[in-house]
Known about the structure:
By secondary structure, the protein is mainly α. It has a single domain (2-112), classed as Rossmann fold. The chain has helices at residues 5-15, 29-45, 61-66, 97-106; strands spanning 2-4, 51-53, 110-112. Helix 1 (5-15) crosses helix 2 (29-45). The radius of gyration is 16 Å and the shape is globular. 18% of the residues are buried. One of its GO terms (molecular function) is hydrolase activity, acting on ester bonds. Residues 1-116 form the 5'-3' exonuclease domain. This is 5'-3' exonuclease. Pfam families: 5_3_exonuc_N.
Amino acid sequence: MLLDTASLYFRASFGVPDSVRAPDGTPVNAARGLLDFLARLVQDHRPDDLVACWDNDWRPQWRVDLIPTYKAHRVAEETPAGQTDEEEIPDTLSPQVPIIEDVLAALGIARIGVTPY
């Protein structure tokens, strides 16, 4: 089963309260929500394998060139040409991405992503 991992953990970050934290206070709500999604998918579909598809570039320029509105609803604000777009993400999500990578590795779930995709 191929997982749109970024979509799942982004969604989980809004679905699980950010009060869910590790003992040291680090937010883990997106990681917890992602694990809940994975458990449900495995229970419902019984896949032979899982592969976490990873967005190395959340909004690649070649896609924006083809479709200027590609993920435009996620851009925080208009930026002058030549500047990097910034995605609106909860402040608690970015610190969880390395945790999510570690959890996937610990579970033996392969992760694949290719730049600039």
